[in-house]
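We emphasize that the prediction below concerns an isolated chain of 257 residues; any contacts that depend on oligomerization or on bound cofactors are therefore not represented. The input was used exactly as deposited, without trimming of termini.
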Amino acid sequence: MTTVKSAILAITFLIASLSSVAQAQKLHPEQENPIPKVIFFDVNETLLDLESMRESVGAALGGRDDLLPLWFSTMLHYSLVESATGRYHQFGKVGVAALMMVAEINDIAITEQDAKKAIVEPLRSLPPHPDVKQGLIALKKAGFTLVSLTNSSNAGVKAQFENAGLLDLFDRRLSVEDIELYKPHLKTYQWAAEQMGIQTDQALMVAAHGWDTAGAKAAGMQAAFIQRPGKVSYPLAIDADYTVKNLTELTDILLKP
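Result of the prediction step, given as a token string:
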């Protein structure tokens, strides 16, 4: 009987304790995320719209423009294979190889030259999403340091920004080409922070890829996931600090008084 009474008292105490904690959390909510010293941006699909490549990739694949997402996901997959196996080829070369793989899987004849024509220049000419330019301008005017962190090559991202009219909006461009480790390798985010002279927890990584925000969070950065059409976050990863529909929404949050 004494044991039962003790158990009841223990449960009552536990419930009371949990209630007190819950009440305290209501009265003293968790502190908001600190203002980042540097905002890092992924480029492809986050800032630039990949849909414009549907025509060139589709033409190379015998009219199968529906294979564009498979090609891009295959390119990302094998860029991770490169880092996991200690190898490195430029992102464009991985993209060409991925397109040839997709073609072979679907019994489509394609040459390496055809694949290069479908990918290299079109990838460098992607238009920005409608919300991007004004969002970047607002953040820059507010005094944020804006840096791109991309799997694309140095020459590639420079051409992309020139063609998209975004070149002057970034304080610096960083490419995995200089460290030869594709995102989401943790060392890539740590390296990026070091390049900017900050700690990882002083940075915010903005991306439309769950694997990218997952890598950034695991490396100690804040992360913002942009829900571009067809994009979802990885449910087994650490949650992003912000989940927004577009850059306009994120800008409104960061600039909120």
